[in-house]
Amino acid sequence: MNKLHLLFSVFFICVVVSCSNDKDCVKETPRSVTIVLSKQNSSSSYRTFLENIDSTITINWINAYETPLSQLTVDLENADGILLTGGVDIHPGLYGNAFDTIRCGTIDIKRDEIETTLLDYALESGTPCLGVCRGLQFMNVYMGGSLHPHLPDTLSDIHRGKDGNSTEHEIYVTQKLGALDIKPGNKSATVSHHHQGISRLADNLEAWAIAPDGLTEGIRHADTTHYPFFIGVQWHPERSDPSGSLATPIGAGFLKAVLNETHIKNTHDTSATSTPVRDSSSTHVIMIDQVVSKKIDIQMH
Questions:
Q1: pLDDT in tens, 246-282
Q2: Domains of the chain from N-terminus onward
Q3: Residue among 149, 163, 158, 221 at smallest CA distance from 190
Q4: pLDDT tens digits, one per residue of 89-107
Q5: Is-catalytic flag, 104?
Q6: Which residues contact 124 (CB under 8 A, 6 or more apart)?
Q7: Are 132 and 46 in contact (CB under 8 A)?
Q8: Is 133 a catalytic residue?
Q9: Catalytic residue at 129?
């Protein structure tokens, strides 16, 4: 009987140890992040694209275009990532060519203002920011660059189908990015749907991918220390073949940066130490949280 008990004990311990090392025994608790979209599209393709990359991540989506500015300010403080989506043309007055409105399509001034607010915060806080199509263009304009108002007039017509629909063309990667698992020299067919693009690249941005006609198709902030993920792509990874060499690495790189931002915020929140504050009416020392201390200090002044 003692031998049976001993054998059973050994077997039980082996099962427990095996299960503790097996990821399939206990499902991982979903990680939660908040991502602000400049404007959500009707098909929700950006959401689907990122959610399909890692199903263990629960994403709280904020549609900035439909959010009052007072609430957006609060949402940005809690944001782990910012995604500037594709869309209509940017007002050319923002890059010094106001007379080019005649060569533009639909212009949305409200959206220009919202994305200015988003980039103000992204550059102030270092929050990971991904720009897609119009998003890349707005990053460049915001930073001081300019655009071709209509590419067929100045460069080529490979970026949008003749019927106004999407088309495909290759993208060439010209340099390595630590934030993305994409190698220099890589080329891949991508979905393209735009008639504007970067003309003069902003001084503090770098190009890392180009189209066959030389148009800049990938950008990043030159200061990768303070802005490790400030990246824009001219094509549509959310509509490109996920098995392609450029689609999934972009989404995965962005999510990795977003998760890292969440970790940084959580670490900062839990590492706040108590600060001794002396009560002016006695010698008793009160221990209060640093955040509360700051709020009290503001109110006193």
A1: 899 999 999 999 999 988 888 876 554 434 333 333 3
A2: 31-268 (3.40.50.880)
A3: 158
A4: 999 999 999 988 989 999 9
A5: no
A6: none
A7: yes
A8: yes
A9: no
